Amino acid sequence: MEFNYKGLAIGLGVTLVWYAFFIFVESYEAAVIAPLVGGYAVNYRIKGKYREGTIYGGLSGAIGAFITALVLSISNLNALTMMGYTDIGTISVELTLVLAIIAGLFMGIAGGLVAGLIFKRQEGKQKVDKKPKTPKAE
């Protein structure tokens, strides 16, 4: 399997755009779906199966969550709350980044698996070979 950098870049871009949008409109609870959508987008784009979905979806979700948490932490904002996760009190920046990576990883994997399931289902429907009905000769 050759690593698909273009697909990963697309998934990462989608994840970051969704995070930025939800943080901009202050809909912090909805921002938690950003890695899910990024993982879905990358695997749907590369038309991958389950294995590719877990790899590329997890990477795009984890990297996107890390970058977003890092930017929010540098900006002196409560990163976990703004990314849609539960506020667990005052914690260190390092722990915030680790928690964001873990949550982004699992959400990205879930999105990639959903896209793999949809792609496999569509592929299965196309493989069904139905014989066309021919009119009977009288």
Quote the distance from N terminus to C terminus.
56 Å
Total strand segments: 0
Helix content: over 70%
Secondary-structure element pattern, one letter each: HHHHH
Task: Report the principal-axis shape.
Answer: elongated
Q: From the alpha-carbon coordinates, what is the Rg to the nearest angstrom?
A: 19 Å
Work out the strand percent: under 5%
Which structural class do the helices and strands define? mainly alpha
Average pLDDT level: 80
- Flag low-confidence runs: none
Question: Can you put this structure into words, describing what you see?
Answer:
The protein is mainly alpha-helical and 138 residues long. The chain has helices at 5-24, 34-46, 50-74, 79-82, 93-127. Helix 1 (5-24) packs antiparallel against helix 2 (34-46), helix 2 (34-46) runs antiparallel to helix 3 (50-74) and helix 2 runs parallel beside helix 5 (93-127). The longest helix has 35 residues, at 93-127. 43% of the residues are buried. The mean pLDDT is 80.
